[in-house]
Structure formats: structure tokens, C-alpha cells
């Protein structure tokens, strides 16, 4: 039947558009965050804050994200049943977020009197920017045909991976420039992208049957709780491996100025692996892929740890990045499936909260000077392997139990 074929083609074109849109949103948002991290020491110095305050401001941001990401996800669940509301919600908060972000360098320019103003703007920006993570992704869960979700999740996370890959160059490039222009440009692009959401939401809603209103919010069952605990462990493993251990690994074989070319290897693996892995998620489910990727990633990190040459290290980093890409893409898919009774936003929000918590823990370790204490060196080196292997094994156990059809697990774990 022609019309049915046309409708489904239209719907899948719309689906691809949604995925690409989410990829751009993640890319622009993550690059904005990188810009912020590059300039924060200078902004803090402008208002007379001690250099030591910078790490505490960054930890404050992650603490806010940890709470706000889940809160925004829950809010998205509440308002998504009304067509057009979700786009409006994200648009308004994006506008506030961008305004606060643009204001940062200008307020910092006032000087020592602007300390409170700067911190207040950072808090407003941190809280409102959480609306740009989980809520847009709930669109995938609420309106999309189930089989499309893994591929769309991979597209969405591609933006995050590309941003990770270009971040080192961005850091080197921006260092010399005045902060105002990069802040204005990244905010303008981010706002335009966020406003595009409401347009897409209308198109998507027109093409698909509306989501059923959420049943009374049930307390999270065993599977979601185990899933989130595993997600925190995976996030912590990623933070310790990539942000703390990767550069020292490379410096065993390479010079410091070569790092900006070597660090992106991890992200190249990340971006390449997600798409083939999304096919496996489509047929086997997100938890199995997450678990298997956790175990493979642990092996890759151990290989990086023990690498005897630069080439071996590059290969190990590529595989570790590939594993992290598979974990993150399947985590989003699993979150949308687990929350498929109208709690998509909540469970997706919890995934982002877990990522923020991992970042917070790593920053706390840095602030505490953990990596400078020789007695903690073995712990820091092997913690990522432990995190990924234990969480990976745990997720495989849950997935296996669900395949066995353990009562109570089937219902709460979805797709």
C-alpha cells in the first residue's frame, strides 16, 4: 500500500532528523562545557577568586548536574504527554541557560566586586543546562518505534563523542582568545538547536500515535536500581581511566605536545563502535551489550596499563573508547526501555546523573591530590579495570536472569 509506505518513509526520515538533531545538541552542549572549563580559571582570576577555587566550582557544577539531571528527566515525563510542551520547556530553559552562559565573561570583566554574581550565574547555568540532556532524549523513547531507538541513541551520543575528540584541539586553540566571542557563539548555536526541538516535536507527534499518559509513577524496581548502580561504576571507571590515567600512559612513549593528537584515539573508537553495536542492542537488548562492553573495556584498559609500546597503547585506547561508546549508547537504549511506562525521562536522567557523579568523584580525587600520593598509585591504576569488569559482570547477570524469565524482572526491565 503506497500511503502506508510513504508514511513509514516519512516517519523514518523524521526519526533520522530527530537523531541528528540530538547529535548536534550533544555536540554543541559538550563543546560549550569544554569552552567553559578552558576559560574558568581566567574568569575566576578576573573576579579575584583563588586558583584553588576553580576545582571546587567545577565540582559544584557536577553536584548540581547529579541532582538536576534526574529532576529534569522527571519533569520531562510529566509534561511530555501534552504535545508541544516538551519543546517549549526545553526552549525556555535553554534560553535562560544560554543567557547565563553568555553573561559569564561579561560579569567576570567587572572585577573583584562580581564574585557572587559570577557564582550565581554559574549555578543558574548548571541547573538550566540539565534540561538539554535527558529531556530531549525522552522524545526517542516516547514517540519512536522501539527498534529505531538503539540507532538513534548512537546518533545522539555521536555528538558527545565528536566533542570529546575535538576538545583537546579546542583547548589549545582557545587559550589565547578573549572569552566573550566563544561564549556568545556557542550559546547562540545551542539556543537555535534547542528551539529546533519544538518544531521536531510537532512533526514527530503528528507522525506517531501519542504516548499513553504515564501510569501512576511506580517506585523503581530492582532492575533499574541495579542498572543505575552499574552505570555509576562504569562512569567512574571511564573518568579515572580517561581523565586521570590516559595522559600519563601516553607520556611513557610520547612528548607532551603530541597528546592533543593521541588523546582523541579513545573518541575515534567511541564514535566508530556505537553503530554496529546498536544493531546488537536492537536484537539482544541494551543490558547485554552494556555488560559485554564493560568486560571487553576492562580488558582493553588492562592492556593499556601493561602496553610496552606506543602502538599497543593506541590500539588498547581505541578499544577502550569503543567499549565506552557501546556502554553509553546501550545505556541510553536500556534507560528508555526500562522507563517505557512513562518514566523514560526519569531513568535517562539517572544515567546522566550517574555520569555527573563519576565526574564529581574524579574531581574530588584530583582536588584531594590522590594522584600525587604514591601509596594510591596502584589503586588509581586498577580501579577503572575493577569498575568496568564488576559492573559489566553484574549487568550480564541481570540480563541472563531476565532471559530466564525471572518473575518480577521481565515487567520492570522492558524491551
Summarize the structure.
The protein has helices at residues 2-46, 53-79, 85-108, 115-129, 134-143, 149-174, 180-207, 222-251, 259-262, 265-284, 286-306, 310-338, 344-367, 377-403, 409-413. It is mainly α and 415 residues long. Helix 2 packs parallel to helix 4, helix 8 packs parallel to helix 13 (344-367) and helix 11 packs antiparallel against helix 14 (377-403).
Largest sheet: none
Apparent shape: globular
Specify Rg, calculated over alpha carbons: 21 Å
Strand content: under 5%
User: How many strand segments?
Assistant: 0
Q: SSE order in H/E notation? A: HHHHHHHHHHHHHHH
**Fraction of helical residues:** over 70%
Task: Describe the structure in your own words.
This protein is an all-alpha fold and 415 residues long. 81% of the residues lie in helices and 0% in strands. The radius of gyration is 21 Å and the shape is globular.
Secondary-structure topology with pairs:
Layout: H1 2-46, H2 53-79, H3 85-108, H4 115-129, H5 134-143, H6 149-174, H7 180-207, H8 222-251, H9 259-262, H10 265-284, H11 286-306, H12 310-338, H13 344-367, H14 377-403, H15 409-413
Helix pairs in contact: 1-5, 1-6, 1-7, 2-4, 2-5, 2-13, 3-4, 3-7, 5-12, 5-13, 6-10, 6-12, 8-11, 8-12, 8-13, 8-14, 10-11, 10-12, 11-12, 11-14, 12-13
Defining key terms:
81% helix; 15 helices; disordered C terminus; 415 residues; mainly alpha
Amino acid at each position: 500500500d503506497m500511503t502506508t509506505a510513504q508514511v513509514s518513509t516519512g516517519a523514518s526520515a523524521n526519526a533520522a532528523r530527530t537523531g541528528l538533531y540530538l547529535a548536534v545538541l550533544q555536540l554543541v552542549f559538550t563543546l560549550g562545557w569544554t569552552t567553559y572549563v578552558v576559560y574558568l580559571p581566567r574568569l575566576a582570576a578576573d573576579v579575584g577568586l583563588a586558583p584553588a577555587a576553580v576545582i571546587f566550582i567545577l565540582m559544584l557544577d557536577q553536584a548540581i548536574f547529579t541532582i538536576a539531571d534526574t529532576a529534569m528527566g522527571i519533569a520531562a515525563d510529566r509534561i511530555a504527554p501534552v504535545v508541544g510542551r516538551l519543546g517549549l520547556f526545553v526552549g525556555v530553559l535553554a534560553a535562560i541557560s544560554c543567557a547565563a552562559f553568555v553573561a559569564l565573561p561579561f560579569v567576570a570583566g567587572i572585577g573583584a566586586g562580581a564574585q557572587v554574581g559570577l557564582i550565581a550565574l554559574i549555578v543558574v547555568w548548571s541547573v538550566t543546562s540539565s534540561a538539554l540532556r535527558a529531556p530531549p532524549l525522552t522524545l526517542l523513547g516516547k514517540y519512536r518505534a522501539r527498534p529505531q531507538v538503539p540507532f538513534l541513541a548512537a546518533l545522539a551520543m555521536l555528538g558527545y563523542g565528536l566533542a570529546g575528540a575535538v576538545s583537546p584541539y579546542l583547548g589549545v586553540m582557545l587559550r589565547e582568545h578573549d572569552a566573550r566571542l566563544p561564549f556568545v557563539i556557542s550559546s547562540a548555536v545551542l539556543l537555535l538547536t534547542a528551539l529546533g526541538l519544538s518544531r521536531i516535536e510537532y512533526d514527530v507527534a503528528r507522525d506517531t500515535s501519542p504516548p499513553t499518559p504515564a501510569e501512576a509513577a511506580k517506585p523503581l524496581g530492582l532492575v533499574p536500581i541495579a542498572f543505575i548502580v552499574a552505570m555509576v561504576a562504569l562512569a567512574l571507571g571511564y573518568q579515572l581511566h580517561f581523565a586521570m590515567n590516559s595522559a600519563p600512559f601516553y607520556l611513557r612513549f610520547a612528548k607532551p605536545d603530541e597528546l592533543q593528537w593521541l588523546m582523541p584515539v579513545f573518541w575515534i573508537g567511541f564514535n566508530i563502535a556505537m553503530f554496529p553495536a546498536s544493531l546488537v542492542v536492537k536484537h539482544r537488548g541494551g543490558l547485554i551489550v552494556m555488560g559485554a562492553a564493560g568486560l571487553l573495556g576492562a580488558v582493553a584498559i588492562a592492556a593499556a596499563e601493561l602496553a610496552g609500546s606506543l602502538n599497543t597503547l593506541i590500539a588498547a585506547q581505541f578499544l577502550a573508547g569503543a567499549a565506552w561508546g557501546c556502554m553509553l549508547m546501550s545505556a541510553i537504549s536500556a534507560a528508555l526501555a526500562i522507563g517505557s511506562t512513562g518514566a523514560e525521562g526519569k531513568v535517562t536522567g539517572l544515567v546522566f546523573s550517574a555520569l555527573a557523579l563519576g565526574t564529581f568523584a574524579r574531581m574530588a580525587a584530583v582536588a584531594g591530590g590522590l594522584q600525587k600520593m604514591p601509596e594510591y598509585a596502584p589503586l588509581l591504576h586498577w580501579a577503572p579495570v575493577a569498575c568496568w569488569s564488576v559492573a559489566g559482570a553484574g549487568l550480564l547477570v541481570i540480563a541472563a536472569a531476565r532471559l530466564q524469565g525471572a518473575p518480577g524482572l521481565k515487567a520492570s526491565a522492558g524491551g
